[in-house]
Design brief:
heterodimer; A: 1139 residues; alpha+beta; 9-stranded mixed sheet; 9-stranded antiparallel sheet; 39 helices; elongated; disordered N terminus; B: 372 residues; 4-stranded antiparallel sheet; 11 helices; Phospholipid-transporting ATPase (chain A); ATPase_P-typ_TM_dom_sf (chain A); ATP hydrolysis activity (chain A)
C-alpha cells in the first residue's frame, strides 16, 4: 500500500517533467544505477461514468445539477414539508418520471460503454515476456511490454513499432476508427534495430501523453554492452495508435508507450464544449418571466389572504376552526408557508414536461436528418450524420455561412490541365482518347511541343515524379505481382494500382507526369522508381522528405540520382516559391501562373536545387539533429527546411483544375436569396478563389468588388498602414454610407437594381487589420471592416491560415446582434472554424474525417446544405419555436383559473382541479399532440421551402421566439384562462344544473373548467397544425378520447388508496347536464375565435400564396432548372472573361 | 485516371436509373442508405387544411345560425322557470327571525322558531324544488374541503373507530371518535324548513315535502354507506362513537326511516358535496306535482316555518329559502341564453365583416400576387 502510494507520488512527479522514460521489455538499462520501474496507469480503458455502486448517488447528483430539475426538487420538498394544497405526488410523480427515464437512458448508455470497455479490456493480446510469448488480457498490458499484433487486429495501446514482418520495415495501418481516414498509412520501424527483440535493451524517452493524434516526439536509446548508447529519433511515423488497425502486414511487434487512459485515443474522448442554441436562451428568458408571474401571483394571494382574514369572522368561522397546531404557529412563519403553498399551487405554470418534450423533440427530430435519402451519397455510400441534436433549430437561424473552398465549393478532384516549363506553355491534348490518353501503350513521347529544351522538360517531369508523398496502391492480386514490372506490363499494372496520397493535388501531378511519359512506380526500400520515357527504370534514393505544411505552403524531397547527384526538388505555392528562386526566372513563369489562377486552376511552382556533397552533409546532420530533438522539434525542422529551400532554380509551374461541386452555384444562390451571407474562407490564392466565387455565382458580373489585399495596399506606393486606413474609409463610404438603408424584411433578389458589393481580403491584410498598432485603431478598423462586410453580399477571404478562419468566425459571431454563424468545411484546416461557429458542418470529403469528427452535422456534399438549412432547419425552428410557445401558453391558461379561484375560496390555496388532473395534464392529456406536431409539422411543405429560398427569411432572427410573439401567446393564454374561469363561474351562479334539480359542487366546477381547458388547448394545436398525417389525427383525437375515458374511469371507481373520493361520478354527472355541455361548447368556441380570426385575417402569405406562386413558377421554369449546370458553366466562363 | 472517370460515368448512369426506378438500383441498395419509407422521408400523406376567409365564412354563418336559436331557446326556457327567493336570516329588526338570530346559542335545548310569510304572484307548475341558500359561507375553503373522511362515510369500520387525521380538529371528542368526523359534517345545515299554504279563507295547509332524490344517486347508493351493511340497528353500529360537537343528535337519529338514516341521510349527503363558490344553494326538498289540473304551488300566500338552528351572523352570512321549478337545462340562469345569443350574433357579424373584407382584400391580394 505504502509502496503504491509512493509510486503514485513518483508517478506524479514524473508527470510534471515533460517526458517519460519507457524501459523496453522492462529490461533495466545499465546506465542508470537504481532501476525503479516507473508506474504508469494500466491499459484499462474506462469510458463508463458509473459503477453499480455509485450509479444512484452520482446520477442523481448529475441530474439535480440541472437548474430545472433542482427547482422541481425544491417544489417537491416544499410539498413534503409544508402543508400544501396539492399532495407531493402531483409534482413528485412527474419529477420521478423524468428522473427515472433519464437515469434509465444514461444507465443503459453506460452499460453499453461498460460492455464495450470490457470487450476492449479483456481482448487477448500476445505479449513477449522474457523471450516467451504469453497471452494476456488487454487491460494487463503495462508500459514497456512488447506486444505482438497480427494482421487486421487493432492495436491495444499506443505502440512504438519495433519490428514488422514486411521486408521494408514498414507496416500499413488504417485509422478509420480514430479519424475516419480509411486509406492505408505507412508506419516505419525504428531504424537499425536488431531483429532479435529479446536481447534488445533500450529505453525510450518520449513526451507526456497529449491528445494530438498527429504529433509525437520521442527518442530511443539503444544500449549495447560497453558501447555508448545509440540514439534514434521517433516520430508519429513510428507510433501505432490504439484503435488503429493493422493492414497488409502479417505481424508487427511494438513496445507500449502509452496505455489505457493515457493513449491518444482515450485522450481524444473528451467531449467537445457544449454548444447552446438560441432557442434555449429564449426558453430561459421566458422561464424568467413565468417565474416572475409565479412569484407575483403567490405574493398577491398571500397579501390578499391576510387582508381578507382581518375581516370579521373570516379567519376562523365557527364551522371551520383551525387545528391546534395552526393556532400555535408563528404569524410570520405562517405567512411564509402560505407563500410557499401558493408557489406550489401555481408551480405547474413552469412545467417539468417541457424540458422532457424539448429533449425528446430534439433527439427524435434529428433522426429525420439521418434518414433523409436526399443526403445519401452514392459515392461514399453514406448519408448525413448528426453528431449533436441540440442544434437542429439553429439550422433555421443561420445568418452567416463560412465555407471553405477546396473540397467544399470545389470537388477536390484534381485534374492536371497544363504546365509551363521554363516559360513555355504545354497543354496536353489528345483528341483520340480524350481524358484517358495516357494508356496508349506506345508511349506518348512526342506530345510535348518542343519548345523548352528536352533536358528541362525531363527535369521538370522527374521533379513531378519525385517530389511528393504519393504511395502506389497495390493491386488486389498479391504482392509479388508488383515486382515483375517491366516493359509492356507497366501500363496495365499501373492502371490497376492507383495512387494514394494525403492531398489530391499530388495524385493529379503524378498522373500528369504519367501522361507525359514519366511514371512513378513506387517507393521500395528508400528508393523511388521511375519509368522514364524510354521505358527505362530509374532509381532515386530518397534521402529526406521535407514535409508539406500549410504555413510553408511547399514541400521538398532530397534525392540522390542514379548518377550520384544529390538533388532537392521543391514544389509549392507561387508565393512561397518565388522568393526562394532566382528572380530572373520568375518573370517568365509568373505570367502563366497568374493567367492559370484567374481561370480557376490551382497552380504550383516547381523548383530544384543541386546540393553539393558538403552542403548535403551539413543539411543531413542538421535534419537528423532536429528530428531527434525532443522539444520544439517542429520549429527546428522548419528552420532547417527554410534554410535549405532557398536559392533554387525555378523549372516550371503546373495548373490543376479543381472542379466545382455538384450544384455548388445553385446552393450558393439559394443561400444568398435566403438572406444568408456567404463568406468564403480559403487558404488558396486570391485569383483562384475569386474565379471560384464567380463560378459559384457568389459574385455576379454586376457585383462591384472591394479589394483589400496586399496588392491593393501596395498600389499607392505608400506605407501599408496608411493605405489600409484610406481604403477602409473609402470602402466604408461606398458600401455602407452611400448604400440605401436596407428595407426591413423586403426580399432583395439578385436581380434588384441596388448595387451589390463583394469584398475580398487576404490573410496578410487581415492580420494587419486585426493587429493594428494600437487597440483603439484596431477596434475601429474592426468595426469598419465588419460594417463593410455586412453590407456586402459575399465576402472572400483568401490566403487564410486555419486559425485566421476561426478568428473571422469569432469576430462575426461576437459582432452586433450576435448573428448565428455556420461553418462548413471538409479538411483538417477547417476544424478550428467548425468548432468556433454556432453550427459546424463537416463534409465527408477526401481530406480525411477530422472535419466530420469535429462537426455538429456532417453531410456528404455541399449541395445538401441547401436542404439542410432551407428545409430541415426551417422546419425544426418552426417546430421547436411553436413547441416552446405552446408549452408556456397551455400552462398559463391551465393555472390562471386556479389562481382566479383563490379569490373565491378565501385565498385558502384550494386547488380548482383534482390532483389527478393536475398531475396528468402535462404528462398525458396535452403532451403527445404537441410532440407529434413538433416532429411532423410542415407548415410549408419541403418542396416549396426548397424552391423558394426567400421563405427562410421569415424565420430569421429568431422571429417566432421574440418578445412580440411571446406576448401574443401569453395574452391568448390569459384571455382563455379568464374566459374558462368566469364563463363557468357565471354558469355556477345557479349550481342546479341538472334536470332533477340536484346541485353541483366545487369538483364539478373544476372538472368543467378542466374539460374546456383540455379541449381548447388541444384544438388550438389542431388549428395550428398545417400538416395532418395519420399520426397527428391519432394523437390529437386519441388524447381527447383518452381524457374522456380516463375521467370516466377515474370517477367510476371508489379508489381504495385515495383518502378522498372527490371525483366520484363527477364527470358522468357533468355529462348528464345539458347546461354543462352547452357551456363547454360555447367556451371552447369562444376561446378559439381569436385564433381563427387571426388565421383568416393575417396576410395570406404562407402556404396558400406560396403554392400559387410556385405553381406558376414550376410551369414556366421547369425545363430551365434541369439545364442549369450547363448554364452555370457558361455563365461562369463569361464572368471570367469579364474579369 | 481511367478508373475514376469510369466511376463518374457509372455514377451518372446510376443517377438516371435511380431517378427512374427508385430504390432498387444496383447492389449498393443494402448499404447504409436510409429506408425509403414515407415516415422517414417526411412524406407521410397529409391533409393540409388552410384556414382562409373562404373556408371560415360559412362556418361563421353556420355557427351564428345555430347559436342564436339555441340562445333564444335557452333564454326563453330560463325565463319560463319560476323562481322565488326569501331571505330569512333576520338581520333587520323588523324581520320575523330577528329574535332567533339574536338570541342564538348552540346549547339551548329549546329550538327557536320563526315564521316568514310571503306570497307567490304566479303559480308554480310541475315539480317545485326547494333549496336553501347560504351566502358568504366558504364551503370551498381548503381547510374545510379536506376535513372529511370518505372511507368512514363509505362504511369502513376501521375509519369509524379511527378517523383520518384530516378531520382535525373535529376528529374526536371526549376521547371518542366523532362519526361523521370533520368540519363539513360538523357544520351540517340543521334549520328545519316547513311550508304552509294559506288559503284565501285562512286555513293553513302543510305542503308535503319529499326528501327523497335530493342527493346524487351514486352518492346515496355507493359513496355513502352505513357501517355494518344492512344492519338496521344503527345505534349498535355507531356504538363507541360520539356525535359531532355542533350536532344535537347522533348520526343514527337523523331520520326515522332506516333508508335515510346514518351516513346515507340525503340531507347529510347533499351537505357533504362542498359548494364551488361562497354563495351557494343546496337542494332541500322536492314538492311533487299532484295532478295535471292544479298547479303544484298555486298563486297565493304562504308561510315558511323555520326552526332556526343555524347561526350565520357571526361571519356576515345570509340564509335564503328558494323555490324553483326546473327545466331541461337546470335551474334559472339567464347567462347561458344571453351568452349564446351574443356569441351567435358576434359570429354572424364577423361573418358579414369577413365577407366584405374577403371580397375587397381577396381581389387585391390576387392582383398583388402576379407582379411578385
Amino acid at each position: 500500500m505504502l509502496r503504491r502510494g509512493l509510486n503514485r507520488l513518483f508517478g506524479g512527479d514524473e508527470r510534471r517533467v515533460d517526458s517519460r522514460t519507457v524501459y523496453v521489455g522492462h529490461q533495466p538499462c545499465p546506465s542508470t544505477q537504481a532501476f525503479v520501474p516507473p508506474k504508469f496507469c494500466d491499459n484499462r480503458i474506462v469510458s463508463s461514468k458509473y459503477t453499480v455502486w455509485n450509479f444512484l448517488p452520482k446520477n442523481l447528483f448529475e441530474q439535480f445539477r440541472r437548474i430545472a430539475n433542482f427547482y422541481f426538487l425544491i417544489i417537491f420538498l416544499v410539498q413534503v414539508i409544508v402543508d400544501t394544497p396539492t399532495s407531493p405526488v402531483t409534482s413528485g410523480l412527474p419529477l420521478f418520471f423524468v428522473i427515472t427515464v433519464t437515469a434509465i437512458k444514461q444507465g443503459y448508455e453506460d452499460w453499453l460503454r461498460h460492455k464495450a470497455d470490457n470487450e476492449v479490456n479483456n481482448y487477448p493480446v500476445n505479449v513477449l515476456e522474457n523471450g516467451r510469448r504469453t497471452q494476456k488480457e488487454s487491460k494487463k498490458i503495462k508500459v514497456g511490454d512488447i506486444v505482438e499484433v497480427l494482421e487486421d487486429e487493432t492495436f491495444p495501446c499506443d505502440l512504438i513499432l519495433l519490428g514488422s514482418s514486411r521486408d521494408d520495415d514498414t507496416c500499413f495501418v488504417t485509422t478509420a476508427s480514430l479519424d475516419g481516414e480509411s486509406n492505408h498509412k505507412t508506419h516505419y520501424t525504428v531504424p537499425d534495430l536488431e531483429s532479435d527483440l529479446e536481447v534488445l535493451n533500450a529505453t525510450i524517452e518520449c513526451e507526456q501523453p497529449q491528445p494530438d493524434l498527429y504529433k509525437f516526439v520521442g527518442r530511443m536509446h539503444i544500449h549495447k554492452d560497453g558501447q555508448e548508447p545509440a540514439v534514434r529519433s521517433l516520430g508519429p511515423e513510428n507510433l501505432l495508435l490504439k484503435g488503429a488497425t493493422l493492414k497488409n502486414t502479417r505481424v508487427v511487434y511494438g513496445v507500449a508507450v502509452y496505455t489505457g487512459m493515457e493513449t491518444k485515443m482515450a485522450l481524444n474522448y473528451q467531449g467537445k464544449s457544449q454548444k447552446r442554441s438560441v432557442v434555449e436562451k429564449s426558453i430561459n428568458g421566458f422561464l424568467l418571466v413565468y417565474l416572475c408571474i409565479l412569484l407575483s401571483k403567490a405574493l398577491v394571494c398571500t397579501t390578499l389572504k391576510y387582508v381578507w382574514q382581518n375581516q370579521r369572522g373570516q379567519d376562523e368561522p365557527w364551522y371551520n376552526q383551525k387545528t391546534q397546531k395552526e393556532k400555535e404557529a408563528n404569524m410570520f412563519l405562517k405567512m411564509f408557508t402560505d407563500f410557499l403553498s401558493f408557489m406550489v399551487l401555481f408551480n405547474f405554470i413552469i412545467p417539468v414536461s417541457m424540458y422532457v418534450t424539448v429533449e425528446m423533440q430534439k433527439f427524435l427530430g434529428s433522426f429525420f436528418i439521418t434518414w433523409d435519402r436526399d443526403f445519401y451519397d452514392r459515392e461514399i455510400q453514406e448519408g448525413a450524420l448528426v453528431n449533436t441534436s441540440d442544434l437542429n433549430e439553429e439550422l433555421g437561424q443561420v445568418e452567416y455561412v463560412f465555407t471553405d473552398k477546396t473540397g467544399t465549393l470545389t470537388q477536390n478532384n484534381m485534374e492536371f490541365i497544363e504546365c509551363s516549363i521554363d516559360g513555355f506553355q504545354y497543354k496536353y491534348q489528345d483528341s483520340r482518347t480524350e481524358l484517358d490518353g495516357f494508356c496508349v501503350t506506345d508511349g506518348p513521347v512526342s506530345k510535348l511541343q518542343q519548345k523548352a529544351g528536352r533536358e528541362k522538360e525531363e527535369l521538370f517531369l522527374r521533379a513531378l515524379c519525385l517530389c511528393h508523398t504519393v504511395q502506389v496502391k497495390e493491386a488486389g492480386q498479391g504482392v509479388g505481382f508488383a515486382d515483375q514490372v517491366d516493359g509492356v506490363d507497366v501500363a496495365s499494372a499501373v492502371e490497376q494500382r492507383g495512387f494514394i496520397a494525403s492531398s489530391p493535388d499530388e495524385v493529379a501531378l503524378v498522373k500528369g507526369a504519367m501522361k507525359y511519359g514519366f511514371t512513378f512506380l513506387g517507393l521500395e526500400s528508400k528508393s523511388m522508381k521511375i519509368l522514364n520515357r524510354n521505358n527505362k527504370i530509374e532509381k532515386y534514393e530518397l534521402l529526406h522528405v521535407l514535409n508539406f505544411d500549410p504555413v510553408r505552403r511547399r514541400m521538398s524531397v532530397i534525392v540522390r540520382s542514379p548518377d550520384g547527384e544529390t538533388l532537392l526538388f521543391c514544389k509549392g505555392a507561387d508565393s512561397s516559391i518565388f522568393p526562394r528562386v532566382r528572380q530572373e526566372e520568375v518573370e517568365r513563369i509568373r505570367m502563366h501562373v497568374e493567367r492559370n489562377a484567374t481561370e480557376g486552376y490551382r497552380t504550383l511552382c516547381v523548383a530544384y536545387k543541386r546540393l553539393t556533397d558538403e552542403v548535403f552533409a551539413r543539411v543531413d546532420a542538421e535534419l537528423r539533429e532536429a528530428r531527434l530533438a525532443l522539444q520544439d522539434r517542429e520549429e527546428r525542422l522548419v528552420a532547417v527546411y527554410n534554410q535549405v529551400e532557398k536559392g533554387m532554380n525555378l523549372i516550371g509551374a503546373t495548373a490543376v483544375e479543381d472542379r466545382l461541386q455538384e450544384e455548388a452555384a445553385e446552393t450558393m444562390e439559394a443561400l444568398q436569396s435566403a438572406g444568408i451571407k456567404v463568406w468564403v474562407l480559403t487558404g488558396d490564392k486570391m485569383e483562384t478563389a475569386k474565379s471560384t466565387c464567380y463560378a459559384c455565382r457568389l459574385f455576379q458580373r454586376s457585383t462591384e468588388l472591394l479589394e483589400l489585399t496586399v496588392r491593393t495596399l501596395e498600389e499607392g506606393g505608400r506605407k501599408r498602414g496608411e493605405r489600409l486606413h484610406e481604403l477602409l474609409l473609402d470602402y466604408h463610404k461606398r458600401a455602407v454610407q452611400d448604400a440605401p438603408p436596407p428595407k426591413g424584411g423586403v426580399t432583395r433578389t439578385w436581380s434588384s437594381a441596388a448595387q451589390e458589393y463583394g469584398f475580398i481580403i487576404d490573410g496578410t491584410t487581415l492580420s494587419l487589420l486585426l493587429n493594428a498598432s494600437s487597440d483603439v485603431v484596431s477596434s475601429n478598423y474592426r468595426s469598419l471592416f465588419l460594417q463593410i462586410c455586412q453590407n456586402c453580399t459575399a465576402v472572400l477571404c483568401c490566403r487564410m491560415a486555419p486559425l485566421q478562419k476561426a478568428q473571422i468566425v469569432k469576430m462575426v459571431k461576437n459582432s452586433k446582434g450576435n448573428p448565428i454563424t455556420l461553418s462548413i468545411g471538409d479538411g483538417a484546416n477547417d476544424v478550428s472554424m467548425i468548432l468556433e461557429a454556432h453550427v459546424g458542418i463537416g463534409i465527408k470529403g477526401k481530406e480525411g474525417r477530422q472535419a466530420v469528427r469535429n462537426s455538429d452535422y456532417a453531410i456528404p456534399k455541399l449541395k445538401h446544405l441547401k436542404k439542410l438549412l432551407l428545409a430541415h432547419g426551417h422546419l425544426y425552428y418552426v417546430r421547436i419555436a411553436h413547441l416552446v410557445q405552446y408549452f408556456f401558453y397551455k400552462n398559463l391558461c391551465f393555472i390562471l383559473p386556479q389562481f382566479l379561484y383563490q379569490f373565491f375560496c378565501g385565498y385558502s390555496q384550494q386547488p380548482l382541479y383534482d390532483a389527478a388532473y393536475l398531475t396528468m395534464y402535462n404528462i398525458c392529456f396535452t403532451s403527445m399532440p404537441i410532440l407529434a406536431y413538433s416532429l411532423l409539422e410542415q407548415h410549408i411543405c419541403i418542396e416549396i421551402l426548397l424552391e423558394n429560398a426567400t421563405l427562410y427569411r421569415e424565420v430569421a432572427k429568431n422571429a417566432m421566439l421574440r418578445w412580440g410573439p411571446f406576448l401574443c401567446w401569453t395574452l391568448l393564454g390569459i384571455f382563455q384562462g379568464l374566459l374558462f374561469f368566469f364563463g363557468v363561474h357565471c354558469l355556477f351562479g345557479n349550481s342546479a344544473l341538472q334536470d332533477n334539480g340536484q346541485v353541483f359542487g366545487n369538483w364539478s366546477f373544476g372538472t368543467i373548467v378542466f374539460t374546456i381547458l383540455v379541449f381548447t388547448v388541444t384544438l388550438k394545436l389542431a388549428l395550428d397544425t398545417r400538416h395532418w398525417t395519420w399520426i397527428n389525427h391519432f394523437v390529437i383525437w386519441g388524447s381527447l378520447a383518452f381524457y374522456v375515458f380516463f375521467s370516466f374511469f377515474w370517477g367510476g371507481i371508489i379508489w381504495p388508496f385515495l383518502k378522498q373520493q372527490r371525483l366520484y361520478f363527477v364527470f358522468a354527472n357533468m355529462l348528464s347536464s345539458v347546461s354543462a355541455w352547452l357551456v363547454i361548447i360555447l367556451l371552447i368556441l369562444l376561446s378559439l375565435l381569436p385564433d381563427i380570426l387571426w388565421a383568416v385575417l393575417r396576410k395570406p402569405r404562407g402556404p396558400h400564396a406560396q403554392q400559387k406562386k410556385s405553381a406558376g413558377q414550376s410551369n414556366a421554369g421547369g425545363p430551365q432548372s434541369f439545364s442549369k449546370p450547363l448554364l452555370m458553366r457558361t455563365l461562369s466562363d463569361e464572368s471570367n472573361t469579364v474579369l | 485516371m481511367m478508373a475514376s472517370s469510369y466511376n463518374a460515368k457509372e455514377e451518372d448512369g446510376h443517377h438516371s436509373v435511380s431517378a427512374a426506378s427508385g430504390p432498387s438500383a444496383g447492389p449498393s441498395a443494402k448499404s447504409k442508405k436510409p429506408d425509403n419509407t414515407a415516415f422517414k422521408q417526411q412524406r407521410l400523406p397529409a391533409w393540409q387544411p388552410i384556414l382562409t376567409a373562404g373556408t371560415v365564412l360559412p362556418a361563421f354563418f353556420i355557427i351564428g345560425l345555430i347559436f342564436i336559436p339555441i340562445g333564444i331557446g335557452l333564454f326563453v326556457t330560463s325565463n319560463n322557470i319560476r323562481e322565488f327567493e326569501v331571505d330569512y336570516t333576520g338581520v333587520d329588526a323588523s324581520s320575523p327571525c330577528f329574535t332567533c338570530s339574536q338570541t342564538y346559542s348552540w346549547n339551548s335545548s329549546i329550538p327557536c322558531k320563526c315564521a316568514v310569510s310571503f306570497s307567490l304572484e304566479q303559480p308554480f307548475e310541475s315539480n317545485v324544488f326547494m333549496y336553501y341558500g347560504l351566502s358568504n359561507f366558504y364551503q370551498n375553503h381548503r381547510r374545510y374541503v379536506k376535513s372529511r373522511d370518505d372511507s368512514q362515510l363509505n362504511g369502513d369500520k376501521a375509519s369509524l373507530r379511527n378517523p383520518s387525521k384530516e378531520c382535525e380538529p373535529y376528529r374526536s371528542h371526549d376521547n371518542k371518535p366523532i362519526a361523521p368526523c370533520g368540519a363539513i359534517a360538523n357544520s351540517l345545515f340543521n334549520d328545519t324548513l316547513e311550508l304552509f299554504y294559506i288559503d284565501p279563507n285562512g286555513t293553513r295547509t302543510q305542503i308535503p315535502l319529499v326528501k327523497k332524490g335530493i342527493a346524487w344517486w351514486t352518492d346515496k347508493h355507493v359513496k355513502f354507506r352505513n357501517p355494518g351493511g344492512n344492519n338496521f340497528n344503527l345505534t349498535v353500529v355507531f356504538q363507541g362513537t360520539t356525535k359531532p360537537v355542533n350536532w344535537r343528535k347522533y348520526v343514527y337519529e337523523l331520520d326515522t326511516d332506516p333508508e335515510n338514516n346514518g351516513f346515507v341521510n340525503e340531507d347529510f349527503i347533499v351537505w357533504m358535496r362542498t359548494a364551488a363558490l361562497p354563495t351557494f344553494r343546496k337542494l332541500y326538498r322536492i314538492i311533487q306535482k299532484k295532478s295535471n289540473m292544479t298547479p303544484t304551488l298555486p298563486r297565493g300566500n304562504y308561510t315558511l316555518d323555520v326552526t332556526y338552528n343555524y347561526p350565520v351572523r357571526s361571519f356576515e352570512g345570509r340564509k335564503r329559502m328558494i323555490l324553483s321549478t326546473i327545466s331541461w337545462m337546470g335551474g334559472k340562469n339567464p347567462f347561458l341564453g344571453i351568452a349564446y345569443i351574443t356569441v351567435g350574433s358576434v359570429c354572424f357579424f364577423l361573418g358579414v365583416v369577413l365577407l366584405i373584407i374577403h371580397h375587397k382584400y381577396g381581389n387585391r391580394n390576387n392582383s398583388a400576387d402576379i407582379p411578385n
